[in-house]
Amino acid sequence: MLDKNGIAKRISKELKDGYYVNLGIGIPTLVANYVPEGIQVTFQSENGLLGMGPFPFEGEEDADVINAGKQTVTMLPGGVYFDSATSFAMIRGEHVDLTVLGAMEVSETGDIANWKIPGKMVKGMGGAMDLVASAKNIIVAMQHVNKAGESKLLPKCTLPLTGIGCVKKIVTELAYLEVTKDGFKLLERAPGVSTEQIKNATLGKLIIDGEIPEMQL
User: Fold this and answer.
1) Which of 7, 55, 22, 25 is nearest to 122 (CA)?
2) Total-model pTM
3) 134-159: b (≥16 Cβ within 10 Å) or e
4) Catalytic residue among 46, 105, 108, 173
5) Cα separation of 2 and 193, whole Å?
6) How confident is the model at residue 126 (pLDDT cuts 50, 70, 90)?
7) Domains of the chain, start order
8) In which order are the strands placed within the sheet that holds 105-107?
9) Catalytic annotation present for 173
10) How many CA atoms lie within 13 A of 130 on its CB side?
11) Whole-number Å distance between alpha carbons of 161 and 114
12) Beta strand 183-189 with 98-101: parallel, antiparallel or unpaired?
């Protein structure tokens, strides 16, 4: 199985030269540490940063430079700061090429629930609704099952939705999948994980076409 860094490494292979990328809170933030050599990617954070770099080494943190999850980050040469209005103009104007988000649930039709569990206190949706409504390409980084061992890849989401029919691909500790009109299509298995394990952990419709290759990280 993949750990959180393994999930981020696999997603980093989806980055393309010249992309503007927004990274959500949690596992997605780790993607900034694994940009492939030879390409230029610009990371955007909805709290008003463009040009984020990797996380700082211990002792080199600047408390004034944080991402949307309030984690200290670094800024690359040429990086800029701006207000939230400008940041959301970038997002709503569809200037972000790829968004990587965490999720509590994803449906087989590409719906995403990632902001609220009824009955639990929540600060608000943040920028998630704008991102899923405006991004050209959305990849979800998530655990395949919840703490109770129940699938988070479902026929239909049970939690309040953030967006409808917007998720394109998903990377979990078990698999790399594509959301198609027919359901979750299994593209790759995580190292050491069998197709049967993925099938047993997926409640939504899973499409298995031939021999499924193992991820190369």
Assistant:
1) 25
2) 0.92
3) bbebbbbbbbbbeeeeebbbbeebeb
4) 46
5) 9
6) confident
7) 4-207 (3.40.1080.10)
8) 112-113, 105-107, 153-154
9) no
10) 21
11) 7
12) unpaired
Cβ-in-10-Å burial (0-12, 13-18, 19+) of 101 comes to: buried
DSSP H helical ranges for 105-214: 128-134, 195-200
CA contacts within 13 A on the Cβ side of 58: 0
Give me the residue label for tokens 């944080």: 66
CA–CA separation, 7 and 31 (whole Å): 9
43-71 per-position pLDDT tens digit: 999 889 999 988 899 999 999 999 888 88
Query: 3-class DSSP state for residue 198?
Result: helix
Report phi then psi at 192, rounded to 5.
Answer: 80, 0
Distances (CA, A) of 209 to 132, 185, 188: 28, 8, 11
Q: Is the pLDDT of residue 165 over 90?
A: yes
Amino acid identity of residue 25, one-letter, is: I
> Position 96: which residue type?
V
